[in-house]
C-alpha cells in the first residue's frame, strides 16, 4: 500500500470522519431487451402501461424501442438501490403481457437490420432530437451493435471528504477544483485496473452467430448457432462491439477535467469526412444530428465517465465545466444472466471498495505508452482473461494477471475493512473474499459459469438465455409489488404520459431551428 493511501485511510478511519464513508451514493441503470416468449426481439411499441419513455424518470428506453432502461435513484445504501431496481423490474413485468426481459448482455435472435425498431419519443423537439440521434447511431455503427445491454453503476464519494483530504495534505485550490481533480484521478486508476472487473464480473463469453451478420471474426464455434471464445470474459466489451474509426483517434487520457471536456467539445464540433458524405438529410428526412466525429458527448463510448447532474437544456460538458465532477458512471459491467436484476449486493459492495481504492490511491498522469497499455490489458482480459498464465503489461514489464490481480485485491482489503467498520457489518470483506475465490478458481467466474451451463445442458447461447429469462420472469412475477407500490408506479406512468402530451402541445419553434441552437450551444463552450 502506498504511503498516501495509508495516510488517507487513517484519516478517514478517525471517529470524527468514519461516518462519511456511509454517505457514498449508489445508483444503477440496467438495460435489457424486451423479447417475445420464443426469444425474438419484440416489435411492439414501448408498453403504454410503463409510461412515456421521454419523461419517466425510472423507466425509459435506450437505443431501440425494445431496449428498456431501468434507473434507480442514487441512495446511500446499495441494498436499497438494488431493492429499487428489483421493484422497477417487478413493475415492468406487470405491463409486459407475454413478453420477457432478456437475461444477458448480448442480444437475442435479431431481425434484419432494417427491422430493429429505433426508440420513438413523440413529436416534441427534444423527443425528436433523441430519435434523430439514434438514427445517426444506426448510420454510424449499425443497429445490431446498439442492441447490446449492460449495467451502469453510478458512484459518488461525499463532497465533505475532499476538503478534508486537501487540508490534511496541504493542498490548495477551491473545493470544486480539488474534487474534480480527485475524480479524474479515480478515472485514471480505473483505466489502469478495470481489466480486473472484466475478469471478476464479465459474463458474455458467447453470442448468437447471427449477431455478426456474416462479418469475418476470430471466434470459435460452440454449436450451429453459437460462437464463443473459450477463455473470454466479456465479448460485449471486446472490439466486436463498437468498431468505429471516427472514435479511434479520440482517447482522452483523463489528465485533467479541462482537457477531457475540451477533447469531447472538439469531437462534437469537428466534421468527419465519411459522415459528411452521408449528410444530415435524405429526401427531406433527418439522418443524423450533424456530420461531426460525435453527434453529442454521450456518443463517446468509454468504460467510465466523470459526470455531473445536468439542468434542463444543459449539455453534459457544460455542467462539468460549470460545476465540476459530482460522480462517476462505470459502464463496462455485463449483466449477470444468473441474477434476476443482473447484479447483486456482493458485486456492489466490491465495486464500492474498488472505486474507493481508485479514488484514494496515488494516480500519476497517464503518459507515453501507459495509455495504450491500459487499452491493451483491457482487451486481453475481455477476450482471454481466464487463459492460464495470461500476461498483462505493467510499467513496461510483463506480469501475470494472477499476480497483479492478487496484489490489487490485497490492497483493496484495508478499504473493504474500513467500509465495514463504518457500516457496522462484514459485507465488504465477504465480497472481497468471493472475488479472491474467483481468482484462485476461474470456474467460479460468471463467464466460466455461462459456458459450463451451456455445456451441461447441451444448449446454445439463445436456449441458455431464454431459459434464464423465463426463470427470472417466474421469480419477478411470482412476488407482486405491494398494492401501494404498484399504485405509485402506475401513477408515475400516467404522469409521465401527461407530461409528454403537455410538452408536445406547448412546443414552440420548429425542429430544424432547435437542432441548430443545440449544435450552437456546444460551439459556444471553450476555455
Automatic annotation (TrEMBL):
<dbReference type="InterPro" id="IPR007370">
    <property type="entry name" value="Glu_cys_ligase"/>
</dbReference>
<comment type="similarity">
    <text>Belongs to the glutamate--cysteine ligase type 1 family. Type 1 subfamily.</text>
</comment>
<keyword id="KW-0436">Ligase</keyword>
<keyword id="KW-0317">Glutathione biosynthesis</keyword>
<dbReference type="InterPro" id="IPR006334">
    <property type="entry name" value="Glut_cys_ligase"/>
</dbReference>
<keyword id="KW-0547">Nucleotide-binding</keyword>
<dbReference type="GO" id="GO:0004357">
    <property type="term" value="F:glutamate-cysteine ligase activity"/>
</dbReference>
<feature type="domain" description="Glutamate--cysteine ligase">
    <location>
        <begin position="10"/>
        <end position="380"/>
    </location>
</feature>
<keyword id="KW-0067">ATP-binding</keyword>
<dbReference type="Pfam" id="PF04262">
    <property type="entry name" value="Glu_cys_ligase"/>
</dbReference>
<protein>
    <recommendedName>
        <fullName>Glutamate--cysteine ligase</fullName>
        <ecNumber>6.3.2.2</ecNumber>
    </recommendedName>
</protein>
<dbReference type="InterPro" id="IPR014746">
    <property type="entry name" value="Gln_synth/guanido_kin_cat_dom"/>
</dbReference>
<comment type="pathway">
    <text>Sulfur metabolism; glutathione biosynthesis; glutathione from L-cysteine and L-glutamate: step 1/2.</text>
</comment>
